[in-house]
## 1
Amino acid sequence: MERTLRPRGDRGHGRRDTGDRHTPRRDAGDRRTRGHRLPRGVRDGARRGAVADRASRSGRLSSPGGRVLLDGAAGDRARTLLPTRHGRSGRRTALVTERPSSYHVDHSTPADHDTVTLSAGTSFAIVGTDGAIRATGAQGYYVDDTRLVSEWSVRIDGSALRVVETCCVGATLDVTGTIGDPTRPTLLVDLRYTLTDQLTVDLVLENLTAADTEVSIDLRVSADFADLFEVKRGVRPRGGLVAFGAVEDDLVLRYQNRGFRRGVKIHVDRPDEVFRDGIHLVEHLGPHATSTVQVRATPLTVQHPYGVLSGVEHQHAWLRRTPPAPASIPALVWQRSWSDLSTLLMRDAHEPHPIVVAAGSPWFMALFGRDSLITSLETLPYRTDLAVGVLQALALRQGLVDDPVTLEQPGRIPHEVRRGEAVRRPDGWGATFYGTVDATPLFVLTVAEAWRNGTDPHVVAALLPAAERAVDWILGPGDPDGDGFVEYPGTVHGHAGLANQAWKDSDDAIRHPDGSIAQGPIATVEVQAYCHAALGAMADLREEFGTGDPGPLRQRAAALADAIDERFWLDDDDCYALALDGDERPVRTVASNAGHLLFTGTAAPHRAARLADRLMEDDMFTGFGIRTLNARNPAYNPLSYHCGSVWPHDTAIIAAGMHRYGSPHAATLAGALLDAADHEGRLPELFGGFSRERRDRPVPYPTSCSPQAWAAGAPLLLAAHLDAHLDAHLDASR
């Protein structure tokens, strides 16, 4: 497989230093003490009485021992005893309650220009550019597919921050604003959000006046503990309970539904008062003095094997090993690619493999077989640790039995590993779902490429049994009708709702030339190419490690390549068919899938030039990349997910494949993709398939994930395969 995938040639964050201007926080003992305050907005006498009356009618009772017994809104199920606590004022400050968890939200997208997304391991936060998390749409702080914070805002002296600057780098968001008359502000405020294994907010207050001042700070926090999948759909009907209460001086929010538990602790040093929906404190600032308040949201009762790679310091360690940017790749794009990957790193605390990579932020902060393996192939020419971690994690979860719900089969590599509530319910598909047909051959390919790129032979040897089982799946359960092609039913199976189990997994991705949707079973052409390459790779591994006879696998690989050429090649279209449908007829559609046969070395040598030319025609090549579906197809839509958009990893794979066959189009295509990256400094999951002649910059796809692992790895793949050719192309273009 060296000739197939290996390149031809050999070849920050941190906490802000605020200096000595910071003054220690003063104790609040001499302040006027406040009683047990009601939630904000109901503190006057009339409202106070109304709330008390409402509490009485709902069944709220004071209980002995300084505890509060509540039911009311949550009905009989909500009865609980939780302690009240004291703030710095020495008065009881907690309101404790429980309520059923149910909600309805408007659909929101991570591409919303008024939000930014911070990512770290299995955590992400979608935060407004003003530093607030609003209780609408998809905003929030998520850990392991559960939204732990659905609302978060800071008001200072009763006012919202007047934002003057916002900057987001990696897992850190800085928001700078003022309080007071905008022409003569009295207070400068810096909010720094940092996401590691917790969400930390540093609130830096600077008195801009020559007088002493007292600053009132109100932090409002709410949690709905929504499951990620249900946030995406916009509705969550369920009957769990959310509890709010004070533990020590922290605000603690917990959720429970059957055996599923989640929680978050909101901590502020020495708060004045803790409410069911927030925390209040007061800061004293001398003339021109500065003070910092730190707020931490720490996950509780999260039972997950993957976590942040022990914080930002490990992301720094990853970035310190970033190779120098080659001359062919813009320096900003190169650095951003490695930085984006660093924010998606995860580690397994319970297993020996050191790191794995999440597929993308915000919706795919989990281990995905296909995405993680392709990202591993993109990074292997530069470092092997990521690929090793991914391979070990997937081998640990390789299928052992037949399960019609999770689609597990012996030898099959998982599609995704999830940790939220929805997948754990009786009608869910379980934490590990196996509904993909390409992760298994890609696993074998990645084992071979890890060996070719210098991975410790003992580490590779330990993965060989899993690779052999994967080959058994390719030749057995993956080919249920025995025709030599790996296929999937093409209908929704189990509870995950995936009709298509190749990389284009949206329901409408496989289209006939008339735009109609192909009926299953479906055998997509790129999956057959991966299987051809996997069989050859396993033969090479057997020969190198002496674990079996390579001959039969080489024969099977050659036979599969011949069968692909015979059954899929469309001579009139100079392209391979998108797939075989349920009648085993070619889906005679020109799509980007065919370009993957160049990458794996599956395309017949006498077809390669014609295929490359076809992919570069105007209906496929936009000027920034290759469309997923040709623009002449009636189903073409430049802003569809898989029927006309451009995916950077897809285009990079095709460009690398063109280079393998010596096509002059390789450098042109790679340069076009780098031009797309240069506009924003990074490559997103996908972008619109509009022609560059019509629009001089890529059009964002509304719900595209950024960062996305295999998109971040696309420039790395281009540099590994085409560096010298790109240099020549850039020189010519200049």
## 2
Amino acid sequence: MSYEIQRLSEAEQQQLQRVYDDLKQLAQSSVPGVASAARAALAQVATALSGEGLAYELYSKDWK
């Protein structure tokens, strides 16, 4: 079975990079909950930027 490779547009890449940069700053927060949440989100955005995320719709009948 073969699936189409999805690519981000240049604008989407730039948006994600801005989000990544903002989250990186928030990850340095002195508020533990903020720093923790920012680090978790940072990992997800880094995955999206690297293109290594899974095509979740392949694994869930409920994903739309």
## 3
Amino acid sequence: CEICGVGEGGDGQYDPSGVQSLADALVYNRTLTALSLEGNGICGEGAEALAEALASRRTGWHNRTLKTLTLTAGAEIPLGALRRNELTELNLADRRLGMCEAVVLGAILVHSQSLHTLNLRGNLIDARGVKALTCALTPRARGLRCTVSTLSLAGNVIGPEGAKALASALHPDPQGIMNDSLTALNLADCAICGVGEGGDGQYDPSGVQSLADALVYNQSLTSLSLEGNGVDMEGGKALASALGSAGTGRHNTTLKTLTMIEGAGLPVGALRQNELLELSLAYRKVGVCDAMLLSAVLVHSKNLQTLNLKGNAIQSAGVLALSPALTTVPGEDPHCLSVLNLEGNGIGPEGAAALGAALVPDAASERCNQSIASLILNDNEISGPPGSDITNGLEALAAAVRGSLSLTHLDLSRNHVGPRGTAALASGLYQSKSLKSLSLTGNEIGGEGAEALAAVIASDPEDGHTRSLSVLDIRYSNLSPASAKKLAQAIGAHPAQWTYLNTIPLADVAHDRVTSLELVGSGIGIVGAMVLARWLRFNHSIERIDLAGNNIGYAGAEALSVAFSPNEDGVKNKSVTSLNLSGNGVSLEEVGNIFPPLISIVVRRNTIMMSSTAG
């Protein structure tokens, strides 16, 4: 009806006098129960006039009979039901509500004493609208208090100022008065850091910082959702401090769930109360900010045993934030964390260095981690980009291997570790007291790296070398036959030490515990074939071996065949009757000449099976 003077196409000049007159009439009218004003572009002074008519904060006179007010098509505000405390839940999600509706809602909620859930998700409420709503969230005179426990403003661009307004309601005023009813607040995708979904705007952490300040004092909020707001390190630090990152001073003790990324709610309460033994946030887009928050809570968590952060984007900055929380000093209750999985997080050399440092006692404070047994760091570019072979991260990890009494398994697969990096890591293996399993799968360790490992493996305990390693995985390392031979000889010199090599169960082979070996496509490599031959020579139980798809070539097949030829003591394997070498780059003619005729050899070519069997 253009009661504000502006037509559908935007022609005309805004004039709130018509709405103000209607509002004045509402104060005294006792017959009107429904009023529809949608499509009139009411805002500012008009909205304030309607709010005053519905719940006067100045004169005490206000309308008590209007049941429904419609300012946006399809979004009736049930004034009567709210006023008479007939509603416990109000859902106005995705109704294109704006500032005007928020102002009116804020006014009527003052009189509602039954509403527990208010869903305003996906509307057009801005900072001004939020400021109007917060008036209804704070304790009021005449014995009235807010009853809303769950509020969702997700998808409303409230900005930093809107976040500050909400924070003011959650923070005690000079008289110590604050909202104590709200338990769940959803501010997802609200641009509270000043940057919208499309990247428009300027980053401003003040809104998040205000919310963090409020969290320190608020003791009612148990769930806070901030995903989709692009909170960066400044905001992350503020939130971490509110949760108690320093481990001392005043901090929030009631928040149970903090969500920074959709689908990745951080169970703050359960961690703080030591209720979790395992936490998996794998593939949840966890970033630096989330790592900061996790660090803040882990300071207080002593029961967590497994933390899986696989496939995220924590990077080196996140690890730098996380590492201190993993450590304790003598006299403190130690952590129980035994498994830390950071696979595929791009932590780089600096992140690896930080983790390595956390596992070694600090010279001044003796602070370190004494619980982590399994550290999974594959696919993290610990040696830098391909070809870099940066060693500082590996040197720190070598120091950790040398000094840790808890670390038993270290996975560094596919980290572009080159010869220098392997040599740096090997230096820590000489004095290793606890490390039993090391994976270097998919690294270009080269001849220098293989020789460095061989030297460690062949070292003599009488020289002070502890040599705790019993599981080694160096598959897909492109070793030359010469390098593979040196490594195989070193491993073979101490057969009782080894449990696994490249997925080959050496201990089972050595103790005649298996009758068949299934190693299809396991990438045992030439060195694996050489070592397996050494163990097979003395085995009496294995009858069938399947090595299909290992691409060991003729050199690997030839190395394996040694097991079936007598050594100087006349010892050879007599139990194996079937060997599958399909997919290894060898022909039946080639292998038929190097294996004894009593073994059935299978080689598949173009789906045709050929075999050589003793006749």
## 4
Amino acid sequence: MAAAMRALTSTIGYALVSLVVAMECSD
């Protein structure tokens, strides 16, 4: 269960960073 939470957090974190970078680049 802990491994699943870590993977989920990692995926969400990566997606969040990618979203911010995309917004910065498009601006």
